Amino acid sequence: xxxxxxxxxxxxxLNDYNKQPxxxxxxxxxxxxxxxxYPFAFSGICxxxxxxxxxxxxxxxxxxxxxxxSVDTPFALKAWADQQGYQFPLLSDFWPHGEVAKKYGVFNxxxxxxxxGTFLIDADGVVRFVERNAPGEARDxxxxxxxxxxx
Length: 151
Description:
alpha+beta, seven-stranded mixed sheet, single chain, 9 strands
C-alpha cells in the first residue's frame, strides 16, 4: 500500500527506545507529525540524516512531532539515541517485522528493512507531504522544512 498526499495516515502503535508505546493517534488534534523512516541504526547515511535533524531540531520542535522509525530493536535504538543525542523518539518496527513500514509503502521485502520514507501528517491525520528515496539515496531535508512551513 502506498500512502499519498491527501490520504488519511494509517494508524499505528510502536514501542520507542524505552519500550513505551507511541500511537500516531496520540498526536491527533494536538500537533502535526513528521514520520522519518530509515533503514538501520548506526548505518552511515541514516546517522548522517538523523544527526542533521538533531542539529537543526530548532526548526522542527515547536512545529511538529518528529518520530524516527526503523526495523531495529528498541535496544539498538536506545544505544544509538544515547550515542548520538537524538531529542526525538525512535520507534521500533521490529515485530511484526516492518508492519508499519509496509502500511506506508516503504518496506523493502528483499532486504527486510524500511527504505527512506518521509511523511508529514497534519493534526487532523491527513498526509500533507510524502518523500520516498531509493536505498543509498540521502534525503534533502529542506523539502521537509518547506512542507512544514506550508501547514
